[in-house]
Fold:
Amino acid sequence: MTIRLAILPLLLALNFSMCNKHPSPTTSSEPVSSSPASAGETAGGSPGPGVTGASPSPKITKAVVDQTAQTIIFCYHRLVDKIRYPGTEITPADFEAQMKQLKDAGITVISMQDLLAWRRGEKNIPPRCAVISFDDGWKSQYEVGWPIMKKFGYPFTMFIYTEGVRGGSLGGGEAITWEQLADMRDNGVDIEAHTATHQDLREGHNIMLAAAGGKKTRTKLTGPEYEQWVHNEVVGSKELLEQRLGIKVNCFAVPFGNYNEHVKELARNAGYEATFTVYGQPITFTSPLDSLGRYAIEANKPKVFVDAVKMIGTSSGGASAVAEVGAADLSTQPADGSTVRTALPLIKANLGRVGAIEPGSVQMRVSGLGVVPVSYDPKTGTVSYQVTQKLRGNSCTVIVSAKAEGKKVEAHWTFGIEATAAAAPVSAAAKATPTPKK
Ligand SMILES: [Zn+2]
Structure:
Protein backbone atom coordinates (compact mmCIF):
# COMPACT_ATOMS: atom_id res chain seq x y z
CA MET A 1 0.00 0.00 0.00
CA THR A 2 2.71 2.42 1.02
CA ILE A 3 4.64 1.55 -2.09
CA ARG A 4 1.73 2.26 -4.34
CA LEU A 5 1.12 5.56 -2.63
CA ALA A 6 4.70 6.50 -3.19
CA ILE A 7 4.73 5.45 -6.80
CA LEU A 8 1.58 7.23 -7.82
CA PRO A 9 2.87 10.78 -7.38
CA LEU A 10 5.99 9.78 -9.24
CA LEU A 11 3.95 8.54 -12.17
CA LEU A 12 1.88 11.67 -12.09
CA ALA A 13 4.99 13.76 -12.13
CA LEU A 14 6.38 11.76 -15.04
CA ASN A 15 3.21 12.18 -16.94
CA PHE A 16 3.03 15.88 -16.46
CA SER A 17 6.63 16.46 -17.30
CA MET A 18 6.10 14.46 -20.46
CA CYS A 19 3.13 16.58 -21.24
CA ASN A 20 5.13 19.68 -20.48
CA LYS A 21 7.99 19.00 -22.74
CA HIS A 22 6.54 17.67 -25.89
CA PRO A 23 4.30 20.50 -27.06
CA SER A 24 7.51 22.36 -27.66
CA PRO A 25 8.18 22.48 -31.37
CA THR A 26 11.81 21.63 -30.59
CA THR A 27 10.88 18.00 -30.96
CA SER A 28 11.58 16.04 -34.07
CA SER A 29 9.43 17.43 -36.81
CA GLU A 30 8.90 21.12 -36.82
CA PRO A 31 8.33 21.99 -40.43
CA VAL A 32 7.13 25.54 -40.79
CA SER A 33 7.22 27.39 -37.55
CA SER A 34 9.38 30.33 -38.50
CA SER A 35 11.01 29.59 -41.81
CA PRO A 36 8.46 31.40 -44.00
CA ALA A 37 9.16 34.56 -42.05
CA SER A 38 12.80 34.56 -42.92
CA ALA A 39 12.11 33.55 -46.49
CA GLY A 40 11.25 36.76 -48.22
CA GLU A 41 9.41 39.20 -46.06
CA THR A 42 11.46 41.90 -44.52
CA ALA A 43 11.11 42.39 -40.84
CA GLY A 44 9.66 45.88 -40.73
CA GLY A 45 6.07 44.82 -40.37
CA SER A 46 4.58 48.25 -39.95
CA PRO A 47 1.09 47.24 -39.03
CA GLY A 48 -0.88 49.61 -41.19
CA PRO A 49 -3.99 51.38 -40.00
CA GLY A 50 -5.10 50.15 -36.63
CA VAL A 51 -8.05 47.84 -36.59
CA THR A 52 -10.01 48.00 -33.44
CA GLY A 53 -12.51 45.22 -33.74
CA ALA A 54 -16.18 45.55 -34.71
CA SER A 55 -16.88 43.75 -37.91
CA PRO A 56 -18.95 45.85 -40.24
CA SER A 57 -22.66 45.77 -40.70
CA PRO A 58 -24.47 42.88 -39.08
CA LYS A 59 -27.49 43.89 -41.15
CA ILE A 60 -26.16 42.09 -44.18
CA THR A 61 -27.96 38.80 -44.56
CA LYS A 62 -25.21 37.20 -46.57
CA ALA A 63 -22.06 38.12 -44.68
CA VAL A 64 -19.37 40.15 -46.30
CA VAL A 65 -16.31 38.05 -45.77
CA ASP A 66 -12.83 39.40 -46.25
CA GLN A 67 -11.02 36.42 -47.69
CA THR A 68 -7.67 38.15 -47.40
CA ALA A 69 -7.79 38.29 -43.59
CA GLN A 70 -5.24 36.27 -41.65
CA THR A 71 -5.07 34.95 -38.12
CA ILE A 72 -2.25 33.69 -35.96
CA ILE A 73 -3.16 31.29 -33.18
CA PHE A 74 -1.13 31.18 -30.00
CA CYS A 75 -0.92 28.33 -27.53
CA TYR A 76 0.16 28.92 -23.94
CA HIS A 77 0.59 26.55 -21.02
CA ARG A 78 1.43 27.51 -17.45
CA LEU A 79 1.86 31.02 -16.12
CA VAL A 80 4.37 31.08 -13.28
CA ASP A 81 6.65 33.65 -11.69
CA LYS A 82 9.56 31.26 -11.38
CA ILE A 83 10.20 29.37 -14.58
CA ARG A 84 11.22 25.77 -13.96
CA TYR A 85 10.09 24.25 -17.25
CA PRO A 86 10.90 26.88 -19.87
CA GLY A 87 9.43 24.61 -22.53
CA THR A 88 5.89 25.22 -21.38
CA GLU A 89 5.96 28.08 -18.91
CA ILE A 90 5.88 31.83 -19.20
CA THR A 91 5.91 34.53 -16.53
CA PRO A 92 2.69 36.50 -16.09
CA ALA A 93 4.65 39.67 -16.87
CA ASP A 94 5.91 38.31 -20.19
CA PHE A 95 2.48 37.02 -21.04
CA GLU A 96 0.86 40.36 -20.34
CA ALA A 97 3.54 42.14 -22.36
CA GLN A 98 2.76 39.89 -25.33
CA MET A 99 -0.96 40.56 -25.07
CA LYS A 100 -0.17 44.26 -25.11
CA GLN A 101 2.13 43.86 -28.10
CA LEU A 102 -0.74 42.38 -30.09
CA LYS A 103 -2.83 45.41 -29.31
CA ASP A 104 0.01 47.79 -30.15
CA ALA A 105 0.61 46.02 -33.45
CA GLY A 106 -3.02 46.52 -34.46
CA ILE A 107 -3.72 42.80 -34.30
CA THR A 108 -7.27 42.09 -33.16
CA VAL A 109 -7.73 39.21 -30.74
CA ILE A 110 -10.83 37.30 -31.85
CA SER A 111 -12.50 34.21 -30.49
CA MET A 112 -11.95 30.77 -31.97
CA GLN A 113 -15.65 30.62 -32.81
CA ASP A 114 -15.40 33.87 -34.77
CA LEU A 115 -12.47 32.44 -36.68
CA LEU A 116 -14.54 29.38 -37.59
CA ALA A 117 -17.60 31.49 -38.45
CA TRP A 118 -15.38 33.48 -40.83
CA ARG A 119 -14.22 30.27 -42.43
CA ARG A 120 -17.85 29.23 -42.88
CA GLY A 121 -18.45 32.56 -44.63
CA GLU A 122 -20.84 33.67 -41.89
CA LYS A 123 -18.92 36.46 -40.28
CA ASN A 124 -16.25 38.94 -41.18
CA ILE A 125 -13.07 39.38 -39.16
CA PRO A 126 -10.55 42.22 -39.20
CA PRO A 127 -7.63 41.87 -41.63
CA ARG A 128 -5.09 40.84 -39.01
CA CYS A 129 -6.21 38.76 -36.06
CA ALA A 130 -4.93 36.51 -33.31
CA VAL A 131 -6.62 33.73 -31.37
CA ILE A 132 -5.32 32.89 -27.89
CA SER A 133 -5.53 29.37 -26.53
CA PHE A 134 -4.38 27.76 -23.30
CA ASP A 135 -3.58 24.05 -23.30
CA ASP A 136 -3.86 21.25 -20.76
CA GLY A 137 -5.94 22.95 -18.07
CA TRP A 138 -3.61 24.39 -15.44
CA LYS A 139 -5.04 26.30 -12.53
CA SER A 140 -2.66 29.19 -13.28
CA GLN A 141 -4.61 29.70 -16.49
CA TYR A 142 -7.68 30.33 -14.37
CA GLU A 143 -5.99 32.25 -11.59
CA VAL A 144 -3.40 34.24 -13.52
CA GLY A 145 -4.08 34.05 -17.25
CA TRP A 146 -7.78 34.77 -17.17
CA PRO A 147 -7.54 38.05 -15.18
CA ILE A 148 -4.95 39.32 -17.67
CA MET A 149 -7.19 38.40 -20.59
CA LYS A 150 -10.08 40.19 -18.88
CA LYS A 151 -7.94 43.27 -18.52
CA PHE A 152 -7.53 43.40 -22.30
CA GLY A 153 -11.05 42.25 -23.02
CA TYR A 154 -9.68 39.36 -25.08
CA PRO A 155 -11.64 36.19 -25.74
CA PHE A 156 -9.77 32.87 -25.52
CA THR A 157 -10.04 29.10 -25.75
CA MET A 158 -9.11 26.40 -23.22
CA PHE A 159 -7.97 23.04 -24.62
CA ILE A 160 -8.65 20.50 -21.88
CA TYR A 161 -7.63 16.86 -21.56
CA THR A 162 -10.29 15.38 -19.38
CA GLU A 163 -8.18 13.07 -17.19
CA GLY A 164 -5.96 16.05 -16.40
CA VAL A 165 -8.74 18.01 -14.72
CA ARG A 166 -8.45 17.91 -10.92
CA GLY A 167 -9.82 14.60 -9.72
CA GLY A 168 -8.98 12.82 -12.96
CA SER A 169 -6.29 10.13 -13.07
CA LEU A 170 -3.75 12.76 -14.22
CA GLY A 171 -5.11 15.82 -12.47
CA GLY A 172 -2.69 16.91 -9.78
CA GLY A 173 -2.65 19.89 -7.48
CA GLU A 174 -1.78 22.33 -10.23
CA ALA A 175 -4.68 21.20 -12.39
CA ILE A 176 -7.78 23.23 -13.08
CA THR A 177 -11.03 22.05 -11.49
CA TRP A 178 -14.39 21.37 -13.11
CA GLU A 179 -15.83 24.20 -11.02
CA GLN A 180 -13.28 26.61 -12.42
CA LEU A 181 -14.05 25.44 -15.93
CA ALA A 182 -17.77 25.95 -15.28
CA ASP A 183 -17.02 29.46 -14.07
CA MET A 184 -15.08 30.18 -17.26
CA ARG A 185 -17.88 28.71 -19.36
CA ASP A 186 -20.41 30.93 -17.60
CA ASN A 187 -18.29 33.93 -18.51
CA GLY A 188 -17.98 33.16 -22.18
CA VAL A 189 -14.67 31.31 -22.27
CA ASP A 190 -14.54 28.74 -25.07
CA ILE A 191 -13.72 25.24 -23.80
CA GLU A 192 -12.52 22.64 -26.29
CA ALA A 193 -11.05 19.15 -26.38
CA HIS A 194 -7.44 18.01 -26.02
CA THR A 195 -8.04 14.21 -25.62
CA ALA A 196 -8.57 12.23 -22.43
CA THR A 197 -5.03 11.38 -21.36
CA HIS A 198 -2.77 13.61 -23.48
CA GLN A 199 -0.71 11.04 -25.35
CA ASP A 200 0.54 10.30 -28.84
CA LEU A 201 -2.59 9.26 -30.74
CA ARG A 202 -0.87 7.39 -33.53
CA GLU A 203 -1.22 3.63 -33.60
CA GLY A 204 1.69 1.62 -32.25
CA HIS A 205 3.20 4.34 -30.11
CA ASN A 206 4.07 3.83 -26.48
CA ILE A 207 1.25 4.89 -24.27
CA MET A 208 0.38 4.70 -20.61
CA LEU A 209 -2.79 3.01 -19.52
CA ALA A 210 -4.35 3.68 -16.16
CA ALA A 211 -6.34 0.76 -14.80
CA ALA A 212 -9.14 1.26 -12.32
CA GLY A 213 -7.49 1.76 -8.96
CA GLY A 214 -4.71 3.87 -10.39
CA LYS A 215 -2.32 1.19 -11.60
CA LYS A 216 -0.50 2.36 -14.67
CA THR A 217 1.17 0.34 -17.37
CA ARG A 218 3.18 1.31 -20.43
CA THR A 219 2.16 -0.47 -23.57
CA LYS A 220 1.74 -0.33 -27.34
CA LEU A 221 -1.76 -0.82 -28.67
CA THR A 222 -2.64 -2.03 -32.14
CA GLY A 223 -5.74 -3.18 -33.99
CA PRO A 224 -9.13 -3.16 -32.25
CA GLU A 225 -7.57 -2.39 -28.87
CA TYR A 226 -5.94 0.70 -30.28
CA GLU A 227 -9.14 1.77 -32.02
CA GLN A 228 -11.09 1.48 -28.79
CA TRP A 229 -8.49 3.48 -26.92
CA VAL A 230 -8.13 6.22 -29.52
CA HIS A 231 -11.91 6.48 -29.84
CA ASN A 232 -12.10 7.36 -26.18
CA GLU A 233 -9.29 9.89 -26.58
CA VAL A 234 -10.88 11.66 -29.54
CA VAL A 235 -14.61 11.07 -29.09
CA GLY A 236 -14.96 10.17 -25.40
CA SER A 237 -13.16 13.31 -24.26
CA LYS A 238 -15.44 15.46 -26.41
CA GLU A 239 -18.55 13.81 -25.02
CA LEU A 240 -17.32 14.10 -21.46
CA LEU A 241 -16.65 17.84 -21.82
CA GLU A 242 -20.00 18.35 -23.50
CA GLN A 243 -21.90 16.44 -20.84
CA ARG A 244 -20.01 17.67 -17.83
CA LEU A 245 -20.20 21.32 -18.87
CA GLY A 246 -23.29 21.33 -21.09
CA ILE A 247 -21.40 22.82 -24.00
CA LYS A 248 -20.80 22.14 -27.66
CA VAL A 249 -17.23 21.14 -28.44
CA ASN A 250 -16.12 21.66 -32.05
CA CYS A 251 -12.35 22.05 -31.77
CA PHE A 252 -9.69 19.45 -31.14
CA ALA A 253 -6.07 20.10 -30.25
CA VAL A 254 -3.78 17.14 -30.88
CA PRO A 255 -1.32 16.48 -28.02
CA PHE A 256 2.26 17.31 -29.04
CA GLY A 257 0.94 17.98 -32.54
CA ASN A 258 1.40 14.27 -33.30
CA TYR A 259 -1.25 13.15 -35.73
CA ASN A 260 -1.76 11.29 -38.98
CA GLU A 261 -4.53 10.84 -41.52
CA HIS A 262 -6.35 8.33 -39.33
CA VAL A 263 -6.42 10.68 -36.36
CA LYS A 264 -7.64 13.51 -38.57
CA GLU A 265 -10.38 11.28 -39.94
CA LEU A 266 -11.46 10.23 -36.45
CA ALA A 267 -11.69 13.88 -35.46
CA ARG A 268 -13.74 14.77 -38.52
CA ASN A 269 -16.10 11.87 -37.93
CA ALA A 270 -16.46 12.85 -34.29
CA GLY A 271 -17.91 16.18 -35.44
CA TYR A 272 -14.93 18.42 -34.79
CA GLU A 273 -14.98 21.34 -37.12
CA ALA A 274 -11.28 22.07 -36.70
CA THR A 275 -8.18 20.23 -35.55
CA PHE A 276 -5.12 22.03 -34.23
CA THR A 277 -1.42 21.30 -34.15
CA VAL A 278 1.53 23.21 -32.74
CA TYR A 279 3.25 24.01 -36.02
CA GLY A 280 2.57 27.72 -36.08
CA GLN A 281 1.63 29.46 -39.29
CA PRO A 282 -0.78 32.22 -40.29
CA ILE A 283 -4.26 30.86 -40.87
CA THR A 284 -5.81 31.99 -44.13
CA PHE A 285 -9.22 31.51 -45.71
CA THR A 286 -8.00 28.31 -47.34
CA SER A 287 -5.89 26.71 -44.58
CA PRO A 288 -7.02 23.10 -44.10
CA LEU A 289 -9.31 22.96 -41.09
CA ASP A 290 -8.05 19.54 -40.05
CA SER A 291 -4.53 20.79 -39.32
CA LEU A 292 -4.48 24.40 -38.20
CA GLY A 293 -1.08 25.39 -36.86
CA ARG A 294 -0.69 27.23 -33.58
CA TYR A 295 2.38 29.01 -32.26
CA ALA A 296 3.38 27.42 -28.96
CA ILE A 297 4.81 30.20 -26.81
CA GLU A 298 7.49 29.28 -24.33
CA ALA A 299 9.72 31.20 -22.00
CA ASN A 300 12.86 29.88 -23.65
CA LYS A 301 11.83 30.90 -27.16
CA PRO A 302 10.66 34.52 -27.16
CA LYS A 303 11.46 34.68 -30.86
CA VAL A 304 8.49 32.48 -31.74
CA PHE A 305 6.11 35.19 -30.61
CA VAL A 306 8.05 37.96 -32.31
CA ASP A 307 8.20 36.00 -35.57
CA ALA A 308 4.50 35.19 -35.47
CA VAL A 309 3.59 38.85 -35.09
CA LYS A 310 6.00 39.79 -37.87
CA MET A 311 4.51 37.13 -40.11
CA ILE A 312 1.05 38.54 -39.99
CA GLY A 313 2.35 42.10 -39.96
CA THR A 314 4.02 41.68 -43.32
CA SER A 315 1.96 39.12 -45.12
CA SER A 316 -1.34 40.94 -45.25
CA GLY A 317 -0.60 44.63 -44.98
CA GLY A 318 -3.89 46.23 -44.07
CA ALA A 319 -4.26 48.74 -46.90
CA SER A 320 -4.59 46.28 -49.75
CA ALA A 321 -7.14 44.09 -48.04
CA VAL A 322 -10.40 44.11 -49.95
CA ALA A 323 -13.67 42.69 -48.78
CA GLU A 324 -15.59 41.08 -51.58
CA VAL A 325 -19.31 41.88 -51.56
CA GLY A 326 -21.77 39.63 -53.32
CA ALA A 327 -23.57 41.49 -56.12
CA ALA A 328 -26.88 40.14 -54.87
CA ASP A 329 -26.35 42.04 -51.62
CA LEU A 330 -26.20 45.27 -53.59
CA SER A 331 -29.43 44.78 -55.56
CA THR A 332 -27.50 45.54 -58.70
CA GLN A 333 -29.13 46.70 -61.87
CA PRO A 334 -28.78 45.06 -64.33
CA ALA A 335 -28.62 41.99 -62.10
CA ASP A 336 -25.67 39.63 -62.13
CA GLY A 337 -26.14 37.08 -64.91
CA SER A 338 -29.12 38.85 -66.49
CA THR A 339 -29.32 40.04 -70.09
CA VAL A 340 -30.41 43.50 -71.18
CA ARG A 341 -31.83 44.65 -74.49
CA THR A 342 -30.05 47.95 -74.65
CA ALA A 343 -26.44 48.87 -75.17
CA LEU A 344 -27.10 51.99 -73.11
CA PRO A 345 -28.22 50.59 -69.76
CA LEU A 346 -28.56 52.40 -66.48
CA ILE A 347 -26.13 50.74 -64.06
CA LYS A 348 -27.03 50.87 -60.38
CA ALA A 349 -26.02 49.33 -57.09
CA ASN A 350 -27.13 49.93 -53.53
CA LEU A 351 -24.28 50.19 -51.05
CA GLY A 352 -26.63 50.84 -48.16
CA ARG A 353 -26.07 47.42 -46.64
CA VAL A 354 -22.30 47.47 -46.75
CA GLY A 355 -21.82 49.83 -43.83
CA ALA A 356 -20.88 53.48 -43.45
CA ILE A 357 -19.55 54.44 -46.88
CA GLU A 358 -17.09 57.28 -47.29
CA PRO A 359 -18.89 59.24 -50.07
CA GLY A 360 -15.77 60.36 -51.91
CA SER A 361 -14.50 56.80 -52.10
CA VAL A 362 -17.22 55.36 -54.33
CA GLN A 363 -15.93 54.27 -57.70
CA MET A 364 -17.38 52.35 -60.64
CA ARG A 365 -15.50 50.65 -63.44
CA VAL A 366 -17.28 49.35 -66.51
CA SER A 367 -15.58 46.95 -68.90
CA GLY A 368 -14.81 48.72 -72.14
CA LEU A 369 -15.23 52.13 -70.51
CA GLY A 370 -12.97 52.16 -67.47
CA VAL A 371 -13.79 54.42 -64.52
CA VAL A 372 -17.08 56.19 -65.14
CA PRO A 373 -18.43 59.34 -63.46
CA VAL A 374 -21.01 57.98 -61.04
CA SER A 375 -23.58 59.76 -58.99
CA TYR A 376 -23.79 58.61 -55.42
CA ASP A 377 -26.64 59.36 -53.08
CA PRO A 378 -25.42 59.00 -49.47
CA LYS A 379 -29.02 58.99 -48.20
CA THR A 380 -30.06 55.89 -50.06
CA GLY A 381 -26.61 54.48 -50.63
CA THR A 382 -27.33 54.25 -54.33
CA VAL A 383 -24.54 54.54 -56.83
CA SER A 384 -25.58 54.89 -60.45
CA TYR A 385 -24.30 55.59 -63.92
CA GLN A 386 -26.25 56.05 -67.12
CA VAL A 387 -24.19 54.61 -69.95
CA THR A 388 -23.93 57.20 -72.71
CA GLN A 389 -21.63 55.43 -75.12
CA LYS A 390 -22.96 52.15 -76.53
CA LEU A 391 -21.45 49.11 -74.86
CA ARG A 392 -19.74 46.76 -77.26
CA GLY A 393 -19.76 42.99 -77.19
CA ASN A 394 -22.24 40.65 -75.57
CA SER A 395 -21.39 41.09 -71.93
CA CYS A 396 -20.32 43.78 -69.55
CA THR A 397 -18.59 43.56 -66.19
CA VAL A 398 -19.02 46.22 -63.53
CA ILE A 399 -16.75 46.72 -60.55
CA VAL A 400 -17.97 48.97 -57.77
CA SER A 401 -15.63 49.79 -54.93
CA ALA A 402 -15.85 52.00 -51.89
CA LYS A 403 -14.36 52.51 -48.49
CA ALA A 404 -16.55 51.42 -45.62
CA GLU A 405 -15.34 51.90 -42.07
CA GLY A 406 -11.78 52.38 -43.22
CA LYS A 407 -11.77 49.26 -45.32
CA LYS A 408 -12.03 48.77 -49.05
CA VAL A 409 -15.05 46.79 -50.21
CA GLU A 410 -15.60 45.72 -53.77
CA ALA A 411 -18.33 44.03 -55.82
CA HIS A 412 -18.07 42.60 -59.33
CA TRP A 413 -20.91 41.52 -61.54
CA THR A 414 -21.54 40.73 -65.16
CA PHE A 415 -24.62 41.13 -67.30
CA GLY A 416 -25.28 40.24 -70.92
CA ILE A 417 -26.31 42.54 -73.76
CA GLU A 418 -28.58 41.18 -76.48
CA ALA A 419 -26.77 40.96 -79.78
CA THR A 420 -29.25 43.19 -81.60
CA ALA A 421 -28.72 45.91 -79.02
CA ALA A 422 -24.97 45.89 -78.99
CA ALA A 423 -23.14 48.29 -81.21
CA ALA A 424 -20.74 45.78 -82.64
CA PRO A 425 -21.92 42.76 -84.59
CA VAL A 426 -21.74 39.56 -82.56
CA SER A 427 -21.24 36.02 -83.73
CA ALA A 428 -23.92 33.46 -82.99
CA ALA A 429 -21.57 31.55 -80.71
CA ALA A 430 -20.94 34.58 -78.56
CA LYS A 431 -24.64 35.10 -78.11
CA ALA A 432 -24.92 32.58 -75.31
CA THR A 433 -26.05 33.88 -71.94
CA PRO A 434 -23.08 35.08 -69.94
CA THR A 435 -21.88 32.81 -67.21
CA PRO A 436 -22.61 34.27 -63.81
CA LYS A 437 -19.42 35.02 -61.94
CA LYS A 438 -19.94 32.66 -59.10
ZN1 LIG B 1 -1.11 19.65 -24.28
